[in-house]
């Protein structure tokens, strides 16, 4: 990705003016594959706006372990990355800028693409701004999801019973509390998901089932009589 001279100058001025005093932390889920971790940390070291980086080894109960790790992190916002995944150099800068410009946002997501083993960027996923109907049909937010720590604490963290779809489950519960206006979207490909990364120990079928069950619980909490079925393609749903 390249930036115009005007955009680079604008970014330098914003950083010089102190774009944000907000503390952002990134939790990297390390899976024992050193080359994956190195690629992630290299991309984080090249960020225009440096942020805190925490690491956590993936174990047999990653959701509970994440909750424990995140409870101890003193931060304003955080996101979870899998080892092997990378961020565009301007990612944390644009996240901080969005926090500053949209004080109503408590969750922020971005567009993304896939990163092959050869380092090629493929399958760009340009997402819409927040759309509840779409979310109930497809866990489209995916990838880089920045969460305000106070919201995470109030909601009790990720739900261990949603392992494999814990981010989707969290987003549904968050919407029930903060509504459409609390969830923001940056329409830039800032997250590069490595095709071999991931921290869940479950099978694809179990992950899909966890997503369906999370959506079913969402309707039950809202007392909406609905049945969630598999959609026309994984991981879509038919309500």
Summarize the structure.
This protein is of the alpha/beta class. The chain has eight helices and ten strands.
Q: In total, how many beta strands? A: 10
The secondary-structure element order is HEHEHEEHEEHEHHEHEE
> In what range is the share of β-strand residues?
15-25%
Query: Roughly what percent helix?
Result: 25-40%
Q: Helix tally?
A: 8
Describe this entry's structure for a reader.
The protein is an alpha/beta fold. 36% of the residues lie in helices and 23% in strands. It has helices at 5-16, 34-45, 62-71, 91-101, 132-135, 149-154, 166-178, 204-221, and strands at 24-30, 52-57, 77-82, 86-87, 107-115, 121-125, 145-148, 183-194, 229-230, 237-238. Strands 1, 2, 3, 4, 5, 6, 7 and 8 form an eight-stranded mixed beta sheet that branches. A two-stranded antiparallel ribbon has the order 9-10. Strand 1, helix 2 (34-45) and strand 2 (52-57) form a beta-alpha-beta unit. Helix 7 packs parallel to helix 8. The longest helix is centred in the C-terminal third of the chain and has 18 residues, at 204-221. The model has no long low-confidence stretch (mean pLDDT 92).
């Amino acid at each position: 990705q390249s930036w115009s001279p005007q955009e680079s100058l604008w970014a330098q001025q914003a950083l010089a003016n102190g774009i944000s005093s907000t503390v952002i932390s990134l939790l990297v889920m390390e899976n024992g594959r050193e080359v994956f971790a190195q690629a992630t940390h290299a991309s984080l070291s090249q960020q225009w706006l440096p942020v805190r980086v925490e690491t956590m080894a993936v174990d047999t109960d990653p959701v509970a372990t994440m909750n424990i790790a995140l409870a101890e992190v003193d931060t304003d916002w955080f996101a979870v990355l899998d080892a092997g995944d990378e961020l565009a150099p301007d990612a944390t800068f644009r996240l901080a800028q969005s926090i500053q410009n949209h004080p109503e946002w408590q969750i922020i997501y971005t567009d993304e693409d896939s990163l092959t083993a050869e380092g090629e960027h493929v399958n760009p996923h340009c997402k819409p701004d927040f759309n509840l109907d779409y979310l109930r049909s497809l866990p489209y937010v995916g990838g880089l999801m920045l969460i305000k720590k106070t919201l995470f604490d109030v909601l009790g963290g990720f739900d261990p019973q949603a392992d494999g779809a814990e981010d989707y489950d969290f987003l549904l519960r968050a919407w029930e509390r903060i509504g459409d206006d609390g969830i923001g979207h940056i329409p830039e490909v800032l997250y590069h998901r490595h095709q071999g990364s991931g921290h869940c120990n479950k099978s694809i079928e179990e992950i899909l089932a966890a997503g369906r069950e999370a959506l079913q619980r969402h309707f039950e909490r809202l007392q909406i009589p609905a049945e969630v079925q598999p959609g026309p393609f994984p991981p879509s749903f038919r309500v």
